[in-house]
Amino acid sequence: MTILRLNLTPLTRALCAVGIGLAMNSPALATPTIQQTARVAKEPYEIVVNPVTDRLYVAAYGAGRGEQPQGQGIVVIHPETLEVDHTIAVPEAAFGLGINTATQRLYSSNALSGKITVFDLKTGSAIATIQDGDKKAHLRQVVVDEASNTIYVTTVGGFTRDPSATPPDSQVWVIDGATNTLAHIINAPVTMATGLALDAGAGRLYVTDMLDQQVAVIDTKSREVVQRFASGGEKTKDGGDSTNVDVDPSGGRLFVTHQMSGTLTVLESASGKLLKTIPTGKGALAVRYIAPAQQIYVTNRNAQTTTVIDSESYEVLAQLETGSFPQSLAYDAKRGLVYVTNKPKSLPRNAPADAHPIDDPRGDSVSIIKP
């Protein structure tokens, strides 16, 4: 998830944005299908699953362009029916989401204000705000290490809306979940930090660089970059490509999406060796590796599809038309279901401030996929 509002080049547009018997022995051979799609949230971004409350949480920016867009909040949804249970009020619009299911804390990132909001899911209220002074860092991905109660957040860096200003460095924030404080900042791990994935067992954090097409490897103990290697993306004339990343800890692999080239690359996590490049669709964005199903899921915003890939053979199993602009992914381990948020078509950026939002029947929705 990320959002830019002004002077959108192709780079910044890329920023705005992974037989029944046979199936029993090899889950990846099953044919993935869309079980249901329901319109549940205005301008949905990221989604997380909470097994404790047995609910889905969706970050909804809301419709309209006022200070408080209609429907803004964190929408709480039933994981089987997709019925809206209630909406949690937010002091800042939520884009990225991360959850600690042990402490029942939800963390939302705001790409415009540079703030992380902490929610207590037991009470459904915001309990803390975390910011680097008064800086409006372009926050993006949120990843939680439940065992250490540590939250990691990328700040994009590498660009500025002011052509006369020097672009800020990218960063990875390290937040102490016990005190809700910004404990450390890892400065300039890459040029333009977008995606983030954690292998907690190995003590490694992986950061994708949208501008320079590389992956940085951070040691979570020393909080230093220990390695960098190519992501397998393309350096195009329009700029960035590599966007999001997920990790297969047991298999020693990374999965990286590339928006401009519309591909997923598979890398060795230890060496960065390129194992496979898989075309998925235009605007490849979110990626999620589902180990029990032996499948990889990729949302393709511009292609309006979600790609399902066999994680062993790298065969494309399905191209599912989930919605107008498939955005983010979540997995419910209890039910074995995958969830996709679908953003709607929107007004042009030069539209009048009082223009009515487009009513897109294929947007503002969540889809359930059965692997």
C-alpha Rg, in Å?
19 Å
Oligomer state equals single chain
Approximate shape: globular
β content, as a range? Answer: over 45%
**Helical segment tally?**
2
Query: What is the fold named in CATH at topology level?
Result: Methylamine Dehydrogenase, Chain H
Percentage of helical residues?
Answer: under 10%
Instruction: Compute the number of strand runs.
Output: 28
Order of helices and strands: HHEEEEEEEEEEEEEEEEEEEEEEEEEEEE
Low-pLDDT parts are 1-10, 18-28
User: Strand count, sense and closure of the main sheet?
Assistant: 4 strands, antiparallel
**CATH C-level class:** Mainly Beta
Average pLDDT, rounded to a whole number, is 91
Strand order of the largest sheet: 1-28-27-26
Describe this structure in words.
With 371 residues, the protein is mainly beta. The protein is built from 2 helices and 28 strands. A hairpin with a 4-residue loop joins strand 16 (214-219) and strand 17. The chain is globular. It has helices spanning 10-15, 20-25, and strands spanning 33-39, 44-50, 55-60, 73-77, 84-88, 96-100, 105-109, 115-120, 125-131, 139-145, 150-155, 171-176, 181-187, 193-199, 204-209, 214-219, 224-230, 242-248, 253-258, 263-268, 274-279, 284-290, 295-300, 305-310, 316-320, 325-332, 337-343, 365-370. Strands 1-28-27-26 form a 4-stranded antiparallel sheet, with no helix packed on it. It has a 4-stranded antiparallel sheet with strand order 2-3-4-5, with no helix packed on it. Residues 1-10 and 18-28 have low confidence and may be disordered.
